């Protein structure tokens, strides 16, 4: 049986135990026994005990068997091949698994066929083993739990504990994945920093990863490529500043309008419309920026006698700002609505006008939350890629003039990793170093934002 | 079934409603009114919350509004400084006049009106600003003080009259939200009197306070009544008896009875007032 049908079988067994358990205890209750919990909790306990261990085992085996097979298969590789100049485990394993799956690229050496044959054998054994152990574990686990059931068994508490474990495991998976991503980025970045000095990366003023000198790392001779990331971060900063100077005022003012001035009917229409803006894919904003805004800025600039690049930071920043507006406005709207009505009443009761109430009471009270909203918007702007790739160009100019073409960290990562790559090269690895720096920056911003929000929460309690 | 029995059943069922008089019992009019309400109806959407209330508020006197909760005391109170304007679905009919001028007339501006008719709320609601700025807020927005020294004077005398000066004079720059509940409520009273209102509306000002803080506020109300006209909503009949000279009893949006506090509590003329003050319902 394959893993999928096995999982189905386990679930069937488990629901069987659920019904058995529930029915048995319902009968007990009918016979006058005092149950600790409602009957379905007894069924649930038996069912969960039949399902969870078996499913966990299946998952582990499904992930684990390939790892074991890989190691076993490497035993078939002759020492002569292993000693060879171009030997790579990954490639050898790919050769073998191609043969296993019946994909043939020409004639392979004999040991490959031997390994493939053995592999197929292991797979068959593993499947049988999986079928037997999973079904047995499910039946036995369920039976074991079923035998434990009696009216005084605290099944409700047991089920609560099991469910808590499942939930905790899910969050552990989410956290572990994130940690894994961060670690792989750190690991690759370290490889990059073995090739390029940290100081060059952090303080270098030229970003030119295109021409890699062959001898760079080994001989100490400098290659042609330069990995100074300052222009990228300057570009990111420039575009973010443009974006925020659009999105913060517009978003904040519209939030104030919606929460303090608009009638409920206007609000009911406008708010969903704003949120619709947030649902537009960024690539759509990207071609809006590239095809509409950038040419418009260019022609306007030209008629004013300014020298505007056809792809400019201004175009990308403006459109990114529009993209972030709903983000800022909906967060600020939440924060402004959280200001207690009692404060507004106090202000109105003293004869304040609406704008006085907003300026002197509502906004000061909401300020920390608004700052947090803006910081989150900054993270959004710093991380945004698509609009920049499409509208700001890819030239890593070191410039703070919004009319120039610049590029950002994220769009460089994209350009570096698009297409065929030689994985070991400094160029490819530089993407990881950029990503690491970006992660650190956005993490820092989010951390500050969360601290501010926390402080804000304490204020009215 | 016997018609007589039917009638009795019907009468019992409608007792509360049937007995509300169309006309208020007692003296709704006074000799020197500060504010006058005439045939006031208030609606929240389609729901009528105040039904044809006519009442005079006498100058420099404390009048208390009592009645079971939901009977419209707060609603009527908030009509007196047009705070109900801030509720979208709220609509008001009839006339409320101050010095003979209808405050709901189209040419009336609510900003000076609310400076003249101040309000203290149920839950103390100081601004998240310093004690000084809380009290200075009203004078600042109304441009009452021309310089800092004048503003300092206003702040000091307001806190003094609210009986808070001695407790806070060394910490004027600390946040008002850091005071105790009773102090916060007195701060709110200081904030209200800082703009020199003529009438002060108080909506259950002690309901969030402990007995000692309550006693302190009640004393304060007695002191302030020599200077201001005060309207207080309270759910405590003892409080109404202690602080007010006149009492108005509301029921289901109607003003059932109004009169001298002593009369209302000792010789209520209406059966429902009697039931309420003797604790039979509410
Ligand atoms: N903002 C509002 N919207 C709708 N109905 C309201 C609102 N405020 C009060 N009401 C209704 O008006 C009636 C009177 O309320 P209120 O004046 O608060 O009574 P009280 O202060 O005497 O307890 C109640 O039935 C209440 O449900
Ligand atoms: Mg009330």
Give the SSE map.
The complex is a heterodimer of chains A (461) and B (282).
Chain A: H1 3-30, H2 39-74, H3 79-83, H4 89-100, H5 110-148, H6 155-195, H7 198-203, E1 207-208, H8 216-219, E2 226-227, H9 230-261, H10 264-279, H11 282-303, H12 313-338, H13 341-349, H14 354-383, H15 386-391, H16 409-417, H17 426-457
Chain B: H1 3-13, H2 15-18, E1 25-26, E2 33-44, E3 47-58, E4 62-66, H3 73-79, E5 90-98, E6 101-102, H4 110-116, E7 117-120, H5 131-141, H6 148-161, H7 165-168, H8 181-193, E8 199-203, H9 211-224, E9 229-233, H10 237-243, E10 246-251, E11 254-260, H11 261-266, H12 271-277
Parallel strand pairs in B: 1-11, 4-9, 4-10, 7-8, 8-9
Antiparallel strand pairs in B: 2-3, 2-5, 5-6, 10-11
Helix pairs in contact in B: 5-6, 5-8, 6-8, 8-9
Describe the 3D structure.
The complex is a heterodimer of chains A (461) and B (282). Chain A contains 17 helices and 2 strands. Chain A is mostly helical and 461 residues long. About 2% of the residues of chain A have low confidence. Chain A is flat and about 80 Å long. Chain A folds into 2 domains: 167 residues, no CATH class; 231 residues, MetI-like (MetI-like fold, Orthogonal Bundle). In chain A, helix 4 packs across helix 5. With 282 residues, chain B is an alpha/beta fold. Chain B has a single domain, classed as P-loop containing nucleotide triphosphate hydrolases (Rossmann fold), CATH 3.40.50. In chain B, the strands form 2 sheets. In chain B, strands 1-11-10-4-9-8-7 form a 7-stranded mixed beta sheet, sandwiched between helices. In chain B, strands 3-2-5-6 form a 4-stranded antiparallel beta sheet, with helices on one face. In chain B, strand 5 and strand 6 form a beta hairpin. In chain B, helix 5 crosses helix 6, helix 5 packs parallel to helix 8 and helix 6 packs across helix 8. The two termini of chain B are 33 Å apart. About 3% of the residues of chain B have low confidence. Chains A and B meet through helix 13 and helix 14 of A and helix 4, helix 5 and helix 8 of B. Bound molecules: adenosine-5'-diphosphate and magnesium ion. Adenosine-5'-diphosphate (ADP) binds next to helix 3 of chain B.
């Amino acid at each position: 049986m394959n893993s999928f049908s096995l999982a189905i079988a386990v679930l069937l067994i488990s629901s069987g135990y659920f019904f058995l358990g529930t029915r048995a205890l319902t009968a007990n209750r009918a016979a006058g026994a005092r149950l600790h919990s409602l009957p379905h909790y007894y069924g649930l306990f038996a069912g969960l005990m039949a399902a969870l261990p078996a499913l966990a085992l299946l998952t582990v085996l499904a992930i684990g068997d390939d790892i074991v097979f890989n190691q076993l298969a490497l035993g078939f590789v002759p020492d002569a091949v292993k000693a060879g100049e171009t030997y790579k485990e990954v490639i050898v394993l790919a050769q073998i698994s191609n043969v296993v799956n019946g994909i043939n690229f020409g004639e392979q050496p004999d040991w490959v066929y031997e390994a493939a044959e053995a592999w197929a054998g292991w797979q068959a054994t593993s499947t049988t083993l999986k079928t037997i152990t999973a079904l047995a574990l499910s039946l036995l686990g369920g039976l074991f739990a079923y035998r434990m059931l009696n009216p005084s068994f605290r099944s409700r508490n047991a089920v609560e504990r099991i469910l808590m474990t499942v939930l905790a495991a899910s969050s552990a998976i989410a956290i572990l994945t994130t940690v894994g991503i961060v670690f792989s980025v750190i690991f690759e970045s370290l490889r990059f920093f073995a090739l390029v000095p940290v100081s060059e990366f952090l303080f270098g003023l030229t970003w030119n990863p295109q021409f890699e000198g062959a001898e760079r790392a080994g001989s100490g001779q400098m290659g042609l490529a330069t990995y100074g990331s300052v222009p990228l971060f300057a570009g990111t900063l420039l575009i973010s500043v443009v974006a925020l100077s659009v999105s913060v005022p517009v978003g904040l003012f519209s939030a104030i309008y919606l929460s303090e001035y608009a009638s409920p009917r206007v609000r009911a229409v406008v708010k969903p419309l704003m949120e619709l803006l947030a649902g537009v894919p960024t690539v759509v904003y990207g071609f809006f920026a590239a095809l509409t805004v950038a040419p418009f800025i260019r022609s306007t600039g030209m008629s004013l006698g300014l020298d505007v690049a056809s792809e400019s930071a201004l175009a990308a920043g403006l459109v990114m700002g529009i993209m972030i507006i709903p983000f800022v406005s909906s967060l600020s709207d939440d924060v402004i609505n959280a200001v207690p009505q009692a404060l507004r009443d106090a202000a109105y009761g003293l004869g304040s006008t609406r704008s006085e109430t907003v300026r002197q009471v509502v906004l000061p009270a909401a300020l920390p939350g608004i700052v947090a909203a803006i910081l989150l918007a900054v993270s959004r702007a710093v991380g945004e890629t698509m609009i920049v790739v499409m509208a700001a160009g890819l030239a890593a100019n070191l410039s703070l003039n919004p009319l120039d073409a610049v590029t950002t960290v994220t769009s460089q990562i994209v350009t570096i990793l698009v297409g065929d790559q030689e994985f070991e090269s400094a160029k490819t690895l530089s993407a990881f170093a950029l990503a690491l720096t970006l992660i650190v920056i956005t993490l820092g911003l989010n951390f500050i934002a969360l601290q501010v929000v926390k402080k804000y929460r304490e204020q009215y309690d | 079934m016997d018609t007589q029995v039917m009638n009795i059943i019907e009468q019992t069922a409608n007792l509360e409603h049937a007995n509300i008089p169309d006309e208020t019992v007692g003296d709704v009019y006074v000799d020197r009114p500060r504010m006058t309400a005439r045939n006031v109806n208030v609606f929240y959407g389609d729901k009528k919350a105040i039904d044809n209330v006519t009442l005079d508020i006498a100058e420099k006197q404390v009048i208390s509004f009592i009645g079971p909760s939901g009977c419209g005391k707060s609603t009527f109170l908030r009509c007196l400084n047009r705070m109900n304007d801030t509720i979208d679905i709220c609509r008001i009919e009839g006339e409320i006049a101050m010095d003979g001028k209808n405050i709901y007339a189209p040419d009336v501006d609510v900003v000076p009106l609310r400076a003249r008719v101040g309000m203290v709320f149920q839950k103390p609601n100081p601004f998240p600003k310093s004690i000084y700025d809380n009290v200075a807020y009203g004078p600042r927005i109304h441009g009452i003080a021309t310089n800092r020294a004048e503003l300092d004077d206003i702040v000091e005398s307001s806190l003094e009259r609210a009986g808070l000066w001695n407790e806070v004079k060394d910490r004027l720059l600390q946040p008002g939200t850091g005071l105790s509940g009773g102090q916060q409520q007195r701060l709110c009273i200081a904030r209200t009197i800082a703009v020199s209102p003529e009438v002060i509306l108080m909506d259950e000002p002690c309901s969030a306070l402990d007995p000692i803080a309550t006693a302190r506020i009640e004393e304060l109300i007695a002191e302030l009544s020599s200077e201001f006209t005060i309207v207080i909503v309270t759910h405590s009949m003892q409080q109404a008896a202690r602080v007010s000279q006149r009492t108005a009893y509301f029921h289901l949006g109607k003003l059932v009875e109004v009169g001298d506090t002593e009369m209302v509590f000792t010789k209520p003329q209406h059966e429902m007032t009697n039931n309420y003050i003797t604790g039979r319902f509410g």
